[in-house]
């Protein structure tokens, strides 16, 4: 059974629902594996736990707000 893991910052319930649907649909289309065999996990991380270029996403958002 295929497993798709998606890691991101905080997501709304609507976005998670759309991700689950569209990741499943495109995976079925590409692989031909039946929809009911796919497992999808969404791993949400707080902004303090994700960094780009040496700054946390929280810091990046704060810097953008102050500009």
From TrEMBL:
Domain of life: Bacteria
Annotated 4-oxalocrotonate tautomerase-like domain residues: 4-59
InterPro entries: 4-OT-like_dom, Tautomerase/MIF_sf
Pfam family, one: Tautomerase
A GO term for molecular function: isomerase activity
Name assigned to this protein: Tautomerase family protein
Species assigned in the record: Chryseobacterium gambrini
Keyword annotations from UniProtKB, A to Z: Isomerase
